[in-house]
Amino acid sequence: MNIEHFDDGKKGHFKAMDGKTEAGLMTYVWAGEDKFIIEHTVGNPAFKGVGIKLLDKAVAFAREKGVKIIPLCPFAKKMFDRMEEIHDTLA
Predict the structure, then answer these.
(1) What is the DSSP string of 67-88?
(2) Please, is 15 exposed, middle or buried when counting C-beta atoms within 10 Å of its C-beta (0-12, 13-18, 19+)?
(3) How many structural domains is the chain composed of?
(4) What CATH number is associated with residue 38?
């Protein structure tokens, strides 16, 4: 599975692809220069665990850029509540 990242400076997404099949998508929008809001996560039911893989990519991106995440998406919020190891990226 490959996770592609797209960012136009205002919004972006992480898309999980398995060959030509979309396994999942996580969308975000920038909230200033130092944080972004995860708005929505959707996973193809045929690909268990794809949401976590997308969140891992978002967290790695935030750490790499030195920015924070606002998890408004219910899935991302639930994962941030459960996973203390990613709280360093929480806005």
Answers:
(1) -EEEE-SHHHHHHHHH-GGGGG
(2) middle
(3) 1
(4) 3.40.630.30
> What are the pLDDT digits (tens) for 43-70?
999 999 999 999 999 999 999 999 999 9
- pTM exceeds 0.70 for this model: yes
Q: How big, in percent rounded to 5, are the helix, strand and coil portions of the chain?
A: 35, 40, 25
26, 54 Cβ separation under 8 angstroms:
yes
Confidence of residue 87 (pLDDT cuts 50, 70, 90): very high
Give 74's Cβ-side CA count (13 Å radius): 1
